[in-house]
Task: structure prediction
Amino acid sequence: MKKIFENNKKWVEQKLNEDKDYFNKLALGQEPRYLFIGCSDSRVPANEITGTGPGEMFVHRNIANMVVHTDMNLLSVLQYAVEVLKVKVVIVCGHYGCGGVAAAAGNKQYGLIDNWLRNIKDVIRLHEKEFLAIDDEEARLRRLVELNVIEQVHNLSKTSIIQNAMQTDEPPKLYGLVYDIKEGYLKDLNALENDGSIKRYEHIYSLLQS
Ligand code: CO
Result:
C-alpha cells in the first residue's frame, strides 16, 4: 500500500502544479457527459482508454460488463446518471480476451461467479446458429464478447430508466463498444439502429402486445 500513497501524493502535487484550483473546482460538483458500463478487468481502465479525466465520466464496472435487470447496484448507477446527472451518452464496453466471457462459455466451475456469468450462457443460446458456424475457437470467443455487449445494450434499452428517458426531449444515446486489449483501440459495434431502436426484436414484442 505504501506505493499507492506515494503515487497519490505525487499525483496531487502534479495536478496542483498544473492548476492550483484543480481540486477546488472538482469539489464544486460533477457534470459528466458519459456513463460507462465496463468490465472489472484491470486492463480496461475506463478513464485512461477514453482520455477522460475526473468529472467527465460516471463509471460502473462489473465482471463481463453485464446489464442485469435485478442488479440494484447497476440500476441505481443508471438511474442517478440518467435522471439526476443527465448524462448524454451511455456506453456498454466489453473487451476481447474477457475472462468472464470465456468462463461462461466453458463448463468449469469457479464458484459464486458462475451465477453471475449464467446470463452470458443465454447470449450463447440466443446466437447458437452463428456460433456453430465459426470454426476457430478464438474467433468464436471474440464474437461472443461482441454479442454479449450487443445483448447488454439491448437489456439497457429495456430498463424502465432508459424507456422513460426516451420519452424526454434529450434522451441519452446508447453505444455498444468493444475494446481490444492487444491493440488498445475501441470499436463501435453499432448495437442499435440509426433511430436508436433494436428493430430485430420489436416484431416479437409487438406480437405479445396484442
Ligand atoms: Co472482462
User: Anything to note?
Assistant: The chain has two domains: 1-29, 31-209. DSSP finds ten helices and five strands in the chain. Residues 39, 41, 64, 95, 98-100 surround cobalt (II) ion (CB under 6 Å).
